[in-house]
Amino acid sequence: MRRPLFFLFLLLLPAATLAAASNSGLSGAAGAIRLIYGQLAGLLPALSMLLVVLGALTYAAGKALPNPEFAGRASGLAAAMIAASAVCFVIILVLPAILSALYPCPGADPACWDMSNVIF
Asked: Is pLDDT above 50 for 79?
């Protein structure tokens, strides 16, 4: 029962942010997306590192136990964790370019999607 509620929360969080900012039109939507991106930029690198560590622990646990079926499942799960970690890093690297193409920065500020100076 908790899993559908969690996914519902993940779907409603960006929707609520966009709805709150939609009163001011497209600039409000760009600001809301900038807020969501700022949250993702703070969350995804830590999540990616956690996935790498958990993947290594899962792989090691699978190799330590004598059951070959568990070792195979653990290897597959560890590979999925490493792949998810790589996807997190790709999202962080590619998303600013995509967002700057969709929502140009106001004025001539080319670094409005740069979140390196934002404190989370």
From this structure: yes
Q: How far apart are CA 66 and CA 117, in angstroms?
A: 49
- Domain assignments of the chain as residue spans, ordered by start: 38-103
pLDDT of 35-59, one tens digit each?
Answer: 777 777 788 888 899 999 999 999 9
Intra-chain end-to-end CA distance of the chain, in Å: 31
Q: Whole-model pTM?
A: 0.65
pLDDT at position 78: 94
With 0-12 CB in 10 A as exposed, 13-18 as middle and 19+ as buried, what is 18?
middle
Q: How far is CA 98 from CA 1, 81, 83, in A?
A: 35, 25, 21
